Amino acid sequence: MTDKEKLVAKFGLILENGKWYSKKENAHPHLIFTDKYFQKTDLLGLVCRINKLCFAKVKYFRQNIDRFEPLKYDMENGFIKTGLWDVNFFRHKASGLIIDLRYLQTITVYEDFVKLCEKLDIDGITKPLCESHEKNYR
Length: 138
Fold this sequence. Notes:
Elements: H1 3-11, E1 13-16, E2 19-22, E3 30-34, H2 35-40, H3 43-50, H4 55-64, E4 68-74, E5 78-81, E6 89-92, E7 98-100, H5 101-106, H6 110-120
Antiparallel strand pairs: 1-2, 2-3, 4-5, 4-6, 6-7
């Protein structure tokens, strides 16, 4: 099973008429992305789309993914390393800061995201967020 297939299974996505939907019990189907997007984008792009992250965040993590470690939380073992398809948190390797993907959803002001990026750049290695991201921020 590919990582994309694992991601689809994890979120219980259903392909109908060229579109991927999330169908949860007692809820209307929710469009996640088109099959064309699914086929042409990378795994990180899919994870970010499912988690409703804007393009500036996608671009930042694409540029700096080697500076982060994907994690999930296990009740018995705490935070554990996982594959990108199963990520719920990112650990910034240099600082140890753990970032919840749900927290990233709450950042809707561009300047607040820039502050987070600057905090993560304390090691001087992370590629800084450039001004061109602002036009891609929601």
